[in-house]
Design a protein that fits this description.
The complex is a heterodimer of chains A (472) and B (466).
Chain A (H helix, E strand, L loop, with lengths): L1 H13 L7 H5 L18 H5 L2 E3 L4 E4 L14 E4 L2 E4 L16 H9 L2 E5 L4 E3 L7 E7 L2 E6 L5 E7 L4 E2 L14 E4 L3 E7 H10 L1 H15 L13 E2 L9 E2 L8 E4 L1 E10 H6 L6 H23 L5 H4 L5 E3 L7 H10 L6 E4 L1 H13 L7 E3 L2 E3 L1 E2 L2 E5 L10 E7 L8 E5 L6 E3 L2 E8 L4 E14 L5 E8 L6
Parallel strand pairs in A: 1-24, 17-28, 18-22
Antiparallel strand pairs in A: 2-15, 3-4, 5-12, 6-11, 7-10, 7-12, 8-9, 8-11, 16-27, 18-23, 19-20, 21-22, 23-28, 24-27, 25-26, 26-27
Helix pairs in contact in A: 5-6
Chain B lengths: L1 H12 L7 H5 L5 E2 L11 H5 L2 E3 L4 E4 L14 E4 L2 E4 L16 H9 L2 E5 L4 E3 L4 E2 L1 E7 L2 E6 L5 E7 L4 E2 L8 E2 L3 E4 L3 E7 H10 L1 H12 L37 E4 L1 E10 H6 L6 H23 L5 H4 L5 E3 L7 H8 L7 E4 L1 H13 L7 E3 L2 E3 L1 E2 L2 E5 L10 E7 L8 E5 L6 E3 L2 E8 L4 E14 L5 E8 L3
Parallel strand pairs in B: 2-25, 18-29, 19-23
Antiparallel strand pairs in B: 3-16, 4-5, 6-15, 7-14, 8-13, 9-12, 9-15, 10-11, 10-14, 17-28, 19-24, 20-21, 22-23, 24-29, 25-28, 26-27, 27-28
Classes of the chains: A alpha+beta (472), B alpha+beta (466).
Chain lengths: 472, 466
């Protein structure tokens, strides 16, 4: 190559050009042109794995069995410098305080909590000692342990930001801690002592009522998921009198309305009319706009505060990582939370890389599997799909989603409506609007979508996954 | 949604120009799901069991004549720090099997002394004189024996209710193995001397021991089955032994058990509110789901026929260390030919996954009925949340061979019930009460039988939190 270039240089300088140059030749040739390319297109696995349900009337109602106890909520915190404070209305997320509607009372209760900090390894609560405070974890991770059957320590659970300990002490003055709670990271807690609670209860009958109501509903006939019991008799002999039963439903079931992503695509009529060889201009404008809408649709399905999967997961289905990085053990825990036929795991590509590091460090190599003709990574036979819409927070933490899909399996379903007027793709319509006086043609491009979780245990989220670790 | 809120705020400023969605919804039909229920599980046990039709309501398992061996487990009652053996369970010890007088057993139970060992303590040493009977009340003990080339060979782990040195009841002996406490272990001891004194005081006990030692034992194979006499490898005109195969005279019979409820529906609900979902059908569907869940629960936990209670004592093995390790699973699988399924609580499966990962192992999955399921040594490891987790965070893992042809575990039901709704489940209309409530009797009949004891194995004391 160098030689030929040299020869050209020599030739041009010294000799007359003997034939037609490429620069001139190009003027006679047709350039092969790609259609416009776009970097923002991803594989959109979420949209592909979700089964899409037709919602004819624009609204989808999820009927469920009646639940007595709704899942434990999370308390939110704000801080001014070192001083951590409870966002008072979120205190009502504690099951025992659910009945309190008076914001002033919640504010009063929030004011009675005292702040404490613990270093890693510090004991926050000691098993069998009197449980005389309600502890909220404002920040940090806490491990709860208990001696096992043969004396070794057994770990029960990891608790993280917003979880609480010692809820039982609200109902019963003489309880002891059923486990030992140890700080795994620096931990900030807010605690409400028994004495202060008693004073509050004495002063505010509404609080006493709420705590009593909770005790009553916790004692009601229900299964482990909090669903109202179906009375059965089993294994009886003789002429046993049978209980009658019926299955109660939730009285105000959740309704999902189709959400929307919309834009107005403008094409100048001169462009649309003339410059159409070899690529149709309108079609390409439309194609890229639709790709962008679909990307946004996936983003909304994950992140929308009302129906997005990350925000809609049941709190009992959110588990923190054990140590920080996404280890195989954490993934096993996540699959144990969504154990009834999990269909897929979704994670940010960086999370998948971090998980790969953790696997390699332990000397294991999970087998990939075949999904719709694509070879994808998998864990325990469940495909682990990349989705860059799952946010990576500023502190380099992310989440992993595990889900069961399909209406038949009581899983997660996507909602859309097919048969829209001027439908372009299922659930997406392109309607001609007008041509304005600057000769610009406008098209209204609309996608309608939503996602519904049919029963809470269809979706699990592994939270606080640290991405930057694992190099140590 | 943000755009919707924006649009709404705009309307405060500008007049709304067209019909809003809230108003339009009143004209539209909402898509409604049938009622969802969280308690529905995959019910793998019901899916993998082959179901046998029991036309007469009773299923009799005929087996070869088996001589009871009585290596059963002893039970203990604990009052504070004081541990006592429950006297009637002492009859589970082979030498005491024929002792029927509760007074004698009571007297023996009173002679035990309590002992305790720390992890690593030696309880008995191979070759030393065995001068006491040791019952393990709580804890794990590993037994070893010097191997052929001097290394210790592991003979297994003993745990709560097991015993060491029952041979001393029958006469002098040396310890056949070394026993070392793996955890803090509480034991009960009966020394040779106090036992001799008991024998002197209770002639019935002496004759029982005599019976046991004199060894008028019928011919039997290692499973305790009456042997089939054969002649093999003979030459010449040897007289060939005649034989017959003896059967158990009182074979075990399994009656179909029952799960039942009365489903009530108000006739007004059943008559009117049936679009798009039939109300009766949905009430019935969820009730049937609840019955099937209960059925699976009973198949595992029923004290009469539940698999966890029905496993042969020789097929119950404790974990070696506590968590479910690959070694424990290998041990469990090795106890029978053709293990087809492993069943464990999802949390136990997660714990097993951790143990594998800790050893750098990644077991392959296998395909079962078109689904990828986890497996160990190619045997599907199926989740089942009906296997109980005790308060101290321990659970069990079940291994089984299934099918009548393989002498395995079979599910029992009856098809062709009157008003059958699904195989083995009937829905019968009862009446309409004077409050206009329709009642349906929903009944499931089921049971499960273990044809040969080794078809079912249980890994016990699996700690899931370590």
């Amino acid at each position: 190559m160098t030689q030929s270039v040299q020869r050209e240089l020599d030739g041009n300088d010294e000799q007359q050009q003997l034939s037609l140059g490429t620069a001139a030749a190009r003027n006679l040739a047709t350039t092969t042109k790609t259609p416009p390319q776009m970097q923002g297109i991803t594989t959109r696995w979420l949209l592909r794995v979700l089964p899409w349900v037709q919602v004819g009337g624009g609204t989808y109602r999820v009927n469920r069995r009646m639940r007595h106890t709704s899942g434990n909520g999370r308390v939110a915190f704000g801080n001014i410098g070192e001083d951590v404070q409870i966002v008072a209305p979120t205190l009502a997320e504690l099951p025992a305080l659910r009945g309190i509607t008076d914001p002033d009372l919640l504010q009063t209760i929030a004011g009675q909590f005292t702040q404490a900090t613990y270093q890693p390894g510090d004991t926050i609560a000691q098993q069998d000692q009197a449980a005389n405070q309600l502890i909220l974890i404002a920040h940090g991770k806490v491990n709860t342990t208990r001696p096992g059957k043969y004396g070794d320590l057994t770990s029960i659970a990891t608790l993280a930001d917003g979880d609480h300990l010692g809820q039982a002490m609200l109902n019963n003055a003489d309880t002891t801690w059923p486990y030992t709670a140890t700080a795994m990271t620096p931990v900030i807690t807010l605690a409400l002592s028994r004495e202060r609670l008693d004073r509050l209860v004495a002063a505010h009958p509404e609080l006493a009522d709420s705590i009593r109501d909770h005790a009553v509903s916790a004692a009601a006939d229900q299964n482990e998921h909090g669903e109202a019991g179906i009375n059965l008799a089993a294994g009886h002999v003789g002429e046993h009198t049978l209980d009658g039963t019926y299955v109660d439903y939730e009285l105000s079931p959740r309704e999902y309305e189709l959400s929307i992503a919309q834009t107005i695509l403008r094409v100048h009529s001169r462009v649309a009319d003339l410059y159409n060889q070899p690529h149709n201009q309108t079609e390409n404008q439309l194609r890229l706009t639709v790709e962008a809408l679909r990307e946004r649709q996936e983003h909304e399905l994950v992140n929308n505060p009302e129906f997005g999967l990350l925000h809609n997961a049941d709190l009992s289905q959110r588990i923190p990582t054990r140590s920080g990085p996404p280890t195989p053990d954490d993934m096993d825990d996540l699959l144990a939370a969504v154990w009834k036929d999990p269909a897929c795991l979704l994670a940010h590509p960086k999370t998948i890389a971090a998980f790969g590091r953790e696997c390699s460090k332990r000397g294991i190599y999970p087998q990939g599997i075949d999904l719709n003709g694509h070879k994808v990574p998998a864990w325990r036979g469940v495909p682990l799909l990349p989705c860059n819409k799952i946010p990576v927070a500023d502190n380099h933490t992310s989440s992993v989603l595990a889900m069961r899909v399909g209406e038949q399996n009581q899983g997660v379903v996507g909602l859309h409506q097919v048969g829209l007027p001027d439908e372009y793709e299922p659930g997406l319509s392109v309607r001609f609007m007008n041509i304005n006086e600057q000769a610009i043609i406008s098209y209204l491009v609309t996608a309608y979508y939503s996602a519904a979780i049919l029963v809470p245990d269809a979706l699990g989220v592994l939270e606080h996954v640290e991405l930057g670790r694992g190099d140590d | 949604m943000t755009s919707a809120t924006e649009a709404e705020t705009e309307t405060e400023e500008a007049q709304q120009l067209s019909l809003g969605t809230a108003a339009a919804r009143n004209l539209a039909t909402t898509s409604k799901t049938p009622p969802q229920m969280q308690a529905v599980t995959p019910r793998w046990l019901l899916r993998v069991l082959p179901w046998v039709d029991v036309a007469g309501g009773t299923y009799r398992v005929n087996r070869r004549l088996t001589y009871p061996v009585g290596t059963g487990k002893v039970s203990f009652s604990v009052t504070g720090d004081d541990i006592r053996v429950v006297p009637p369970t002492l009859a589970e010890l082979p030498a005491l099997r024929v002792v029927t007088d509760p007074g004698v057993l009571e007297a023996i139970a009173g002679r035990f002394d309590q002992g305790s060992y720390e992890p690593g303590d030696t309880i008995a040493r191979h070759g030393d004189a065995a001068n006491q009977l040791i019952l393990i009340a709580h804890g794990k003990v590993s037994t070893t024996k010097p191997g052929k080339y001097g290394d210790d060979a592991n003979l297994g782990t003993l745990t709560d209710g097991d015993h060491l040195g029952h041979t001393i009841l029958a006469g002098d002996a040396t310890w056949p193995h070394t026993a070392v406490a793996l955890t803090r272990t509480l034991t009960l001891h009966l020394t040779r001397e106090s036992f001799d004194r008991l024998v002197a005081a209770h002639p019935e006990l002496a004759s029982a021991i005599d019976d046991h030692t004199s060894g008028d034992k019928p011919d039997q194979n290692k499973h305790g089955e009456a042997s089939i006499d054969l002649t093999a490898g003979h030459e010449g005109e040897q007289l060939i032994t005649g034989t017959f195969v003896d059967y158990e005279l009182r074979p075990r019979e399994y009656d179909l058990s029952i799960a039942q409820t009365v489903l009530r529906i108000h006739s007004r609900v059943a008559d009117l509110y049936n679009q798009p979902h039939n109300q009766t059908e949905n009430q019935l569907r969820l009730t049937v789901q609840a019955l099937r869940e209960r059925q699976e629960h009973e198949l595992l936990n029923n004290p009469h026929f539940g698999l966890l209670h029905n496993a042969d004592l020789g097929q119950r093995i404790p974990t070696r260390s506590g968590p479910p390790t690959p070694d424990d699973m290998d041990n469990l699988v090795s106890r029978r030919r053709k293990t087809q399924f492993l069943l464990a609580h999802p949390k136990a499966i997660a714990a097993f996954g951790r143990e594998c990962t800790g050893r750098g192992l990644y077991p392959d999955e296998v395909d079962l009925n078109g689904r990828r399921v986890r497996a160990w040594r190619g045997i599907p490891l199926l989740p089942c949340d009906k296997i109980p987790i005790s308060d101290d965070h321990t659970t069990s893992v079940i291994a089984m061979r299934t099918g009548e042809d393989d002498h395995g575990v079979v599910g029992l039901h009856q098809v062709g019930l009157p008003d059958e709704y699904e195989p083995g489940l009937s829905v019968r209309f009862m009446n309409i009460s004077e409050q206009a409530i329709l009642s349906y009797l929903v009944t499931a009949y089921y049971s499960v039988a273990v044809l040969v004891p080794d078809a079912l194995g249980v890994l016990e004391h699996v700690e899931i939190g370590r």
